[in-house]
Amino acid sequence: MAELLKNIYNDQFFNRFVLAIKDIIPEFDDTAFLKQMFDDEWDNKELKQRIRHIALVFKAHLTGDFSTHVATLLKLIPALKNYGFKDDNFEFTFLPDFIEIYGLDHYETSIKAMEDITKFVSCEFAIRPFIIKYQDAVMKQMLLWADHEHKAVRRLSSEGCRPRLPWAMALPALKKDPKPVISILKKLKNDPSEYVRRSVANNLNDISKDNPDLVISLLKTWYGKTKETDWLVKHAARTLLKQGNTELMVLFGFGAINKIKISDFEVLTPRVNIGESLEFSLTLTNLDTKDSKIRLEYGLYYLKANGTLSRKVFKISEKTYASMSTAKIRRKQSFKVITTRKFHPGKHQVSIIINGQELNDILDFELV
Length: 368
Hints:
With 368 residues, the protein is of the alpha+beta class. 44% of the residues lie in helices and 19% in strands. The protein has 16 helices and 9 strands. Strands 2, 4, 5, 7, 8 and 9 form a 6-stranded mixed β-sheet that branches. Helix 8 (135-145) runs antiparallel to helix 9.
């Protein structure tokens, strides 16, 4: 069984962490700190609860005001590197969390701190309450950060304002009107760092869920310029493509399917035990006298608790099928128990989707 992510906070981690603290605060009471850290509830705390707990306990062992605390955090980062901790360490998310908790009423100090801290650990979560409270000021700052020399700061200017960033609080005002975000993304679309361009694509994918027409229009103007931007556009369009958006299907070269034939579509496992896999197969024939570019997907209709079915789309492949060719395709879909989806025994369904168009032949299978 894979180790739980929350267990990155173990004795080895805290022993190194305390050594770094004592390099900059020799009088730091590490015994009291660790005793308070590993309280009676520690074992029951989940990842985000541990992150917040570390920030709170750390604050309890610091003296001075918020500006003094920030100066300590900034001195701590090079000390941590001396003990082998590298940049982009997720386990230090409690540093930006510290700024989020205690810095919301100290705008200038907090913004400058995040600009520096994000080079070591991303401040994409911590900046969001600041966007909600000081939207105009923060978005102007993020527009400036889009030209920053450090790629982590440039990425923060995109990742921090994603309207639907996973694990983070939503940004309702930017869901409704993402124009301030678009101004930043336009600056970053040709960024030399793939790390930054991926964030731009993910941000656009977020925006497409609330403002699809805006994103479609933008992607159509960006496509066809460079290989890197084409990848960004395609990645940004993934939700719209799964929805079968016709404009984007045409943009990416997925055309009519009237000469594409699906036959022998069959569920090979009509009864699937939870923890095992659905298996199905089909034959795809290109009857055209020319090659055809095909986006092949399947729809999995999951049974919900209320007895209705909800479709989720999965991609099989995107490829060019030679003229007058036939391909046999077999696919598995896991029903392994995961934390992000609850399975309900009963009738489920599976369908085939070609270039965004779902075929009428939808097959049943039983999950037990």
